[in-house]
Amino acid sequence: MTASTKSQLVEWIIQLDDQELIETIRAIKESVEKGDWHKSLNDKQKASIKRGQDDHKEGRVLSSEDFWKKHG
27 to each of 34, 58, 66, how far by Cα in Å? Predict the structure, then answer.
């Protein structure tokens, strides 16, 4: 992961208003620090990750550049 990607993620997280998403990110952070983060996610969080993986496999993706054009 490049420094630019990390910076983009930090900037995006700072601007988040969605408390559920913020909580999910916090849970992932804490889980990573503990080890196997996937085990500590609830079913809703796991389903969300699975949807993202399926979107990626099916080509339903948005480049970072396009995202920032729309949301930046």
Answer: 11, 27, 28
Per-residue pLDDT of the chain (72 residues; tens, 9 = 90+): 688 899 999 999 999 999 999 999 998 888 788 877 777 788 999 999 999 999 999 999 888 888 888 887
Which has the closest alpha carbon to 49: 31, 66, 35? 31
Q: Return d(Cα 26, Cα 24) in angstroms, integer.
A: 5
